[in-house]
Each structure stands twice: as structure tokens, then as C-alpha cells.
Specification:
Helices cover 41% and strands 14% of the residues. The chain is built from 10 helices and 6 strands.
Length: 295
């Protein structure tokens, strides 16, 4: 199969500059350990995975001029199992933070959860009575710029406070400089503040609740909280993440990693793939205000 530059290009395919950012971070096969040579180029495999992620098609429906669906699916599962996606994601996140003039270790973050309907069944399927959704819940911890620090996918039936403990568990070991996390009112109320006390005592991090204005109906843009909502919006542009199509939670988490890898690789390559318009302009303005306020 031809894997050279003459192959058809798709809007989801990596550009040469994006591939130059990602390629050094991917594992390289050691011929001294034996085994057959790779049959499909790693870039072609990654383009196939990105096609599935962005378009939302089934693995079996990928175009024939990409890698065979079963080969791409095996590579996706293998890189999920050995932690490749997570390692690449963390390396790119550090590079993006440095490019933006920030330290690799964040000092503040934002936490939130999103319930997604399940389409395929599988493990950890539950019912979120509050959102009336049967499926899974995606818990994201993002930095003040919206980059994902940690993600956990679990049953939608798990309460936000219980799910937050899974995200924050051993967090101080990975991010020792992290001191402050903004959350919404679902993580603490006048009846139950156990999560706040636990986080302060065990993880040495302060959870600050950003209250919602009870007098305003409908959607509200809350200080700091809009950052994680924008990250959920970035992920929702990938149709594979519009619903939860994965049978394993590890694969659902890996799809989040791959989506952020593509976005960060584009930033580092100087080919930002975020849409430009009034929403992103307003988000950039609010981000600048928040950064100036913390200086």
C-alpha cells in the first residue's frame, strides 16, 4: 500500500508540520527485537484514527485509501493499553504551556463533568437522573487555558462528588504545584461539603465553588467556569465524542487524548484549527482578563 505524500488527503489528516510535532513522541519499533517490519506507516494509521474521531464513522466504514480499519483499531487499542496516547498528550501540553510563556506545572485548574449518551453499551454504563442521560460521565480537569490535565470516564450514575474524588486521587503527586481548583455548586452545598474538606486534607488543594446566580434562568457564563465549558466544546467538534461509542472506558478516555493531541499539535505547528468568530474572540478576551487578574 502506498504511504507516500501522493495519497489522497482529507481535512482530518495531519499536515506535514503537525506530523513533525507528533512523530518524535511516538514509540519506534526496535528491529533488534525481531518481528516483521511494519506493514502500514504510522502516519497513515494516525490519519485513519483521526478520520474516525473527527467524522464519527464506524471503524469498518473508513475509506479504503486509509489504513485498514482493523489495523488502525488494533494500533489505537495498543497505544491505549501501553499509555502512548497519554504520554504524547502530556508532552504536547507541556510544550504548549511553555510556548504560551507559562510553567509546565499549573497552579490553578477548573473541574467539571459532562454526561454523554452511550450508543454501544459496554462497561460502566449508568443513568444520570439529573440530566436524564443513560451512558457515561466525562470528568475533566483543565488548566486556566483549557488544556486537559486529567480525564476520567465513568458511569453516568456516579455522583459528581464521587467522580471528582477519582479525578483528584493522587493529584498532588502529578501536579505538586497545583493549589486551587474552581468547581460548580454540584460538588459542594450546605448539606455536603465533604469533598472540599477531603481535597484540602488529602490532596492539599483548595476547591473554590463558583456559585450560579439563582435569579438568572438558562445558560450563564460564570467566571473561570467557562474555560472548561469551552474545552467540552472543542471535544464536541469531534463527532466520535458527540456520544460515547466506546465499549471500554479506557478507549473513551483515549479518544479525548487524541482529540487534544490534534488540537495542540496544530497550535505548536502554527496551524490553529480552532474556529474564529465572536465566540472565540470573546473567549480570548475573557482569558486575557483572567490572566491579567492573576498577575
Amino acid at each position: 500500500m502506498c504511504v507516500c505524500s501522493c495519497k489522497p488527503r482529507y481535512a482530518t489528516s495531519l499536515t506535514d508540520r503537525q506530523w513533525a510535532v507528533i512523530a518524535p513522541l511516538l514509540p519506534v519499533r526496535d528491529p533488534r527485537r525481531g518481528g516483521r517490519p511494519l506493514k502500514y506507516d504510522r502516519r497513515l494509521v494516525l490519519d485513519t484514527i483521526l478520520y474516525v474521531l473527527r467524522t464519527g464513522c464506524a471503524w469498518r466504514h473508513v475509506p479504503h485509501d486509509l489504513a485498514p480499519w482493523d489495523a488502525a483499531c488494533r494500533w489505537f487499542a495498543a497505544w491505549t493499553a501501553d499509555g502512548t496516547w497519554r504520554c504524547v498528550h502530556e508532552a504536547l501540553r507541556d510544550q504548549v504551556r511553555e510556548q504560551e510563556g507559562r510553567a509546565r506545572q499549573p497552579t490553578a485548574a477548573v473541574l467539571d463533568a459532562q454526561s454523554a449518551k452511550s450508543a454501544e453499551g459496554g462497561e460502566a454504563i449508568g443513568y444520570d437522573a439529573g440530566k436524564r442521560v443513560r451512558g457515561r460521565k466525562r470528568h475533566l480537569l483543565v488548566d486556566t487555558g483549557g488544556l486537559v490535565l486529567h480525564r476520567v470516564v465513568h458511569s453516568a450514575g456516579v455522583q459528581d462528588r464521587a467522580g471528582a474524588r477519582r479525578v483528584l486521587h493522587a493529584l498532588h503527586q502529578r501536579f505538586p504545584a497545583l493549589e486551587l481548583i474552581w468547581v460548580d455548586g454540584g460538588y459542594a452545598n450546605v448539606v455536603d461539603t465533604g469533598l472540599l474538606d477531603w481535597a484540602q486534607r488529602i490532596e492539599q488543594v483548595e476547591l473554590v465553588v463558583v456559585p450560579r446566580n439563582a435569579d438568572v434562568r438558562g445558560f450563564q457564563v460564570l467566571p473561570r467556569r467557562w474555560v472548561v465549558e469551552r474545552t467540552f466544546g472543542w471535544l464536541a467538534r469531534c463527532r466520535r465524542l458527540a456520544r460515547d461509542y466506546e465499549r471500554k472506558t479506557a478507549h473513551a478516555e483515549a479518544m479525548i487524548d487524541v482529540a487534544m493531541i490534534r488540537l495542540m499539535a496544530a497550535r505548536l505547528a502554527g496551524e490553529d484549527i480552532e474556529p474564529h468568530g465572536p465566540i472565540e474572540t470573546e473567549a480570548a478576551r475573557r482569558l486575557a482578563e483572567d490572566l491579567n487578574r492573576t498577575k
